[in-house]
Amino acid sequence: MIKFSPPYFGAAYYPEAWEQKELDKDIKRMKDLGVNMVRVAEFAWAFMEPEEGKYSFEWLHRAVKALGEAGIAVVMCTPTATPPAWLTKKYPQSLAAMPTGQKFVHGARHHYCPNSLVYREFSNKINTRLAREFCKYPQIVAWQLDNEFSCHINSCYCEVCERTFRQFLKRIYGTIDRLNESWGTGLWSIRFGSFDEIPLPKPAPANHHPSLIYYFKYFMSHSYSNYAREQTRILRRFTAVPITTNGMPPFHELDYEDLFSNLDFASNDLYYSPEEMWKWCPELDWMRPLKEKPYWIMETSATSAGGLIPAAPYYHTPGALRAKCWLAFAEGGEAVSFWLWRAHWSGQEMEHGSLVYAWGEPTLAEPQIRQVSGELAKTKDFLNSTKPEKPRVAVHFSYPSMWIFNQGHLAWNFNYVSSWQELYYRPLLEAGIPRDVIYPNADVAGYSAVISPFMAVIPRKTARKMEDFMKNGGIWIVGPMSSFRNEQATAFQESAYGPLEKLIGAHVRHRFQASGKGKVDLTGHKSVGCSLWCDAFIPEKGTKAIAAYADGPAKGMAAAVERKIGRGKIVALGTHFDRRFLAGWLVSEIAKYAQAKAVSGCGIVAVRRVSVTGKPEGMIVVDIAGKGGKATPDKNGVDLLTGKKVKNSLSLPPYGVAVIKY
User: Fold this and answer.
1) Which of 40, 68, 307, 626 could form a disulfide with 352 if both were Cys (CB 3.0 to 4.6 A apart)?
2) Which of 133, 148, 334, 430 is catalytic?
3) Is 602 annotated as a binding residue?
4) Which candidate, 272, 344, 303, 355, places its Cα nearest to that of 11?
C-alpha cells in the first residue's frame, strides 16, 4: 500500500481542462519531475453539477484514482469560488453587489454573496455530495475550502447583507440607543431611530461614520469566516482529513485569526518576486504560531505570475526558486504547491507561469524543480522529525487596526501593512533574530519580548494579557500610533490612550502629525529624526522618559517612556524614530531583554531545528537576498544536501541553501 506523507511538493492541476490521454501524460511528467502532490477542483463546480441537481464526478474519480496509483497525493477543494451559470442566472439573489448596489455578473469568480441563504444552500449541497464521493480516498491528504476567500471582492452591498449587517449589530449592542451612545452618532445628525435605519457604507457625499465603516469590515470578515465554518462542518461529517483554506497577501481585510480558528492548519498563497523574497518571512511567521502546526504554501509561481494581473516582470534567477522553496520548509512548512502544473490553453490566466507549458514541455523552472524534489527526498526524515525552535520575540499584527488605518484619518499616506513590514518587522529579520507574528488574541506567555507597532486598537483582553506578560518578566514595546481608538472605533474621552495611559504611567498631553523635519534626543544617543506622528508624554512618578522632542511644538516633552511592571517593563513610543536608528535600537533592546541570539547576517535566514522535545537537532540556512553570506551554526554538523561537514562558520553562495544536522 502506498504511503502518502510530507514533505509535499506539487502544483494545482485541472483535469477538467484536459482529455484522459493528457492526464496520463501529465502524471508521467509529474513523476519525472518529482512532484508528489496536486491540488484539484477549486473551480470545477460546473463540471460537478452541470445542471441543477444533476451531478457528475466520474471524471474526477478517474483523476484521483490515477494520481493515487502513481503515488501522488491529492488536495481536494470545494468548488464554491466559481458558481455555475445556471445558478447565477436562475438565482440572481446569490450574486454579490457593488457599493452602488449593482449586481456582479457571471463569467469571473467570487461573484457570490457569502450571506446569501440561497447560495449557501447550493454550496452546502455540492460540498455534501463532493465529501460523500471522495471521503474514502487515502491519497486525499487535505481539503481546501473555496479559493482565496475575498480575493477579488471583500465586501458585498446587497439587500441580504444590509439586513444581515443590521442583525449583526443588534446582537452586539442589543438596543439602538446603546449603539448610538457607543458610536457617538449625535454629530452630523446621524443618530439612528432603529436598526432598520442603519445603512451600508455605500457612496455618499462625504465619508460615512468611522464606526459604521469599522463594523462593516468586521461584519464582512465575520461573514466569510462563518461561511468557512459552515463548509467545515459539512466536510467533517464525512472525513477526518485535515481542512484548511488558502490566504492571499498582501494581507486582505479578512481577519485570518478568525478565519483559521476552526481549521486544522494554515496555508497561504505567495507571489512575491525574488527581489522581495524577504516578504515571504512575515507570512510564514504568522502561519506557524497560529495553529502551532506545519503550514502549507498552497500557491506560488514557478516562473512568473500573470493573467488576471499584468504579467509580473520577473523570472527566477538561478537558485532563487530553490531558495524560496527551502525558506518555506525551513520556517516550518510541510508543503509547497505551485500555481500551476500545466499552463492553461484558454481563459483569463493563460499567461501565468507554470511547471509545464500548455503544450506539455517543461518550463524554465525544470532544473530547480528537479533539484528541490531530489533534496526533499534526501532530507525527508530530518524535516519530518524536527521543527523550528520557538522564537522568544513576537510582533503583533492587528486586523482591527488595519481597518482603522485604511480609513485614512491619521498620518498622511500612511499604509499599515507596508509600514508594519518595513519599519518594525524587517529590522528583526535582517538582524537574524527569530520572531513570530501574532494576532491580538494570541497567548504571549512563551515570549520574552513583544512589539506592538501601529496597534490602533488594543482590546482590553489583550491589554490584560500584556500586563501579566510584563509582570512575569516580559518587555512590551508598544507604539507608535497605538491605542488611539477604542473597540467602537471612537476616540477615548478620558485620555488619548485610554486605559493604556495607566499602564505606561504617562499622560499624552499633545498629539499632532509629524512634519518630517523634527528631531528627538534619546538618552545615551545623539539626536535622530522623527516622522509619521508625534505623541508628547508627561511621565508620572516611576516612569522614565527615554527620549524627548528636540524641537517643534512639543520641544522638551517626552517622545518615548519606559516603566517597570513586575519583573518586566513597558516601552511606549510616541513617534517613529529615524529608520536606521530605530532598527539598531530595536534589535539592541530585544537582544538585551529577550536574550535572542542572532546566528546570521542580513539577507540570510537561519532557522534552528529542534526535536519534538526541544532538543537541538540542526539548522536550515537560506540566502534570500541573492548576495551570499555567512551563518554561525550552534554546533558542528553535516550538510545533508552535500554530505560535507560544517563547523562553526558557514559560507553560502548567492541563493545558497544548507540543511545541517548536528
Assistant:
1) 307
2) 148
3) no
4) 355
Asked if the structure places residue 444 within a domain, the reply is yes
pLDDT 10s digits, 148-160: 999 899 999 999 9
Q: 435 and 533 share a domain?
A: yes
Q: Which of 49, 133, 283, 299 does the annotation list as catalytic?
A: 299
Asked if residue 320 lies in contact with residue 290, where contact means CB atoms within 8 angstroms, the answer is no
Q: In this structure, are 372 and 464 located in the same domain? A: no
- pLDDT at position 449: 97
147 marked ligand binding residue: yes
pLDDT above 60 (res 479): yes
617 tagged catalytic: no
**113 assigned binding-site residue:** yes
109 annotated as belonging to a binding site for a ligand: yes
161 is in an annotated binding site: yes
Query: Which residues, in sequence order, are CB contacts of 137 under 8 Å at separation 6+?
Result: 64, 65, 68, 74
CB 602 within 8 A of CB 642: no
Q: Are residues 123 and 264 in the same domain?
A: yes
CATH number, residue 652: 2.60.40.1180
Q: Is 299 a catalytic residue?
A: yes
Q: What's the rounded Cα separation, in Å, for the pair 507 and 521?
A: 19
What is the residue whose three cell numbers read 496597534? 455
Q: Do 188 and 336 reside in the same domain of the chain?
A: no
> For residue 395, which of 330, 453, 443, 471 has the smallest C-alpha distance?
453
Q: Domain residues for 46?
A: 8-158+224-385
- What's the average model confidence in pLDDT over 626-649? 94
Do 144 and 185 share a structural domain?
no
Radius of gyration of the chain (CA): 26
Residues 516-532 have pLDDT tens digits of 889 999 887 889 999 99
Position 365 in a domain: yes
pTM over 0.85: yes
Number of separate domains in the chain: 4
Vertex 113: Cα angle to 169 and 244 (nearest 5): 95
- 50 and 75 inside one domain: yes
Same domain membership, residue 189 and residue 123: no
Half-sphere exposure of 165 (CA within 13 A, CB side): 25
Shared domain for 375 and 420, answered yes or no, is no
CATH number at residue 365: 3.20.20.80
